[in-house]
Write a structure and sequence with these properties.
By secondary structure, this protein is an alpha/beta fold. It has two domains: about 5-205, Response regulator (Rossmann fold), CATH 3.40.50; about 220-320, no CATH class. It has helices at about 15, 40-50, 70-80, 115-130, 140-145, 155-165, 185-190, 200-205, 220-230, 230-255, 270-275, 300-320; strands spanning about 5-10, 30-35, 55-60, 85-90, 105-110, 135, 145-150, 175, 180-185, 205, 260-265, 285-290. The strands form four sheets. It has a four-stranded parallel beta sheet. Strands 1-2-8 form a three-stranded parallel beta sheet, with no helix packed on it. The chain is elongated and about 145 Å long.
Length: about 325
């Protein structure tokens, strides 16, 4: 290069055909580049961890068609996951890339010339189909794509400083350590109903997290009422309280008088009664009645006193 040149945004040496010689330098006079330690291979690995895709659509700008061998590159990267790759070149005149019905995940690769509005329309279409999406850049997540791995760069200033001190760019290392962090679009995740692991939730940064998802408004009392209604455990405990009240009434009923009555009616055939010569009446009726009242029982009296004391304990254990 006639002048010192630093290329940034290099995502993959093989895909972008950048010069690389040992020990991880460009080897080209007056030229170096910033190679992320988070290449596309790691993007796909991270995406597959949160969503084990089987048919991945990779969206690339049409103006790169024929310049790089995207198809074999992505097929090789997806092979360890047993996934098929559907390479789609996003044509300039087409508002949205055409995805087949088999697609279950979308990776937005190199589409730098697309505006945030166009990416937003794409994310809307993907959300309508409940398709998880992953991008190479956080700007796409701002526009509505579901997730990316953000890269916080810290080394560019050191390269510029090295140039100012007269160091040869060809000998400067191109690999730099970057801090990596999940960046997720909360609105998109809610819309497609995507489930995330606790590990991802705790380590991620969320965008659009404060966007409302419904126009329904509830008062505090309504929230509590709906929570109690939908909480099965609380409903079971409330039933236990109701049953405790039944136990108290059952205990008191043991002190009430017990009345039992019975009647018996016997009808004999007239001819049989006649042959019995008065020893067998034609009709016989009988009735009995008994009344029982508990006068003293330690067990019954104790149960009547215990049940009112148990019921408040059930109530406190349920609602406290």
């Amino acid at each position: 290069m006639p002048k010192p040149t630093i290329a940034v945004g290099i995502l993959d040496v093989e895909l972008q055909q950048m010069p690389l010689v040992e020990p991880s330098v460009s080897g080209v006079h007056n030229f170096t580049y910033v190679l992320s330690t988070h290449p596309i291979q790691k993007d796909l690995a991270a995406f597959h961890r949160i969503h084990p895709f089987a048919h991945l659509a990779v969206v690339v700008s049409e103006n790169l068609k024929g310049r790089l061998d995207f198809e074999s590159f992505f097929e090789r990267l997806a092979a360890p996951y047993g996934a098929e790759v559907e390479l789609i070149f996003w044509e300039k005149e087409t508002p949205l890339p055409a995805l087949s019905d088999a697609v279950d995940a979308v990776y937005l690769a190199v589409v730098f010339e697309r505006s945030p509005e166009e990416v937003g329309l794409l994310s809307e279409a993907l959300a309508e189909r409940k398709l998880p999406s992953f991008a190479m850049s956080r700007s796409y997540v701002d526009a509505g794509i579901m997730a990316c791995i953000d890269q916080i760069f810290r080394k560019l200033a050191l390269i510029v400083e090295g140039v100012a001190l007269g160091e040869e760019l060809a000998a400067m290392p191109v690999r730099h350590n970057l801090d990596e962090q999940w960046v997720l679009n909360a609105a998109t995740i809610r819309r497609i109903g995507f489930d995330l692991s606790f590990e991802t939730l705790f380590s991620a940064r969320f965008l659009k997290a404060d966007e409302p998802t419904t126009d329904r408004r509830l008062s505090l009392q309504e929230i509590i009422a709906e929570g109690l209604q939908s909480n099965l455990d609380l409903r079971i405990e409330k039933r236990n309280v109701d049953l405790a009240g039944q136990d108290m009434r059952r205990a008191k009923s043991s002190l009430l008088p017990t009345v039992e009555t019975s009647t018996t009616l016997l009808q004999v055939d007239p001819n049989v009664a006649e042959r019995a010569l008065g020893q067998q009446p034609e009709r016989t009726g009988a009735g009995t009645g008994t009344v029982q009242q508990v006068l003293f029982s330690e067990q019954v009296f104790a149960n009547v006193k215990i049940q009112p004391a148990i019921a408040p304990i059930w109530s406190r254990s349920t609602w406290c």
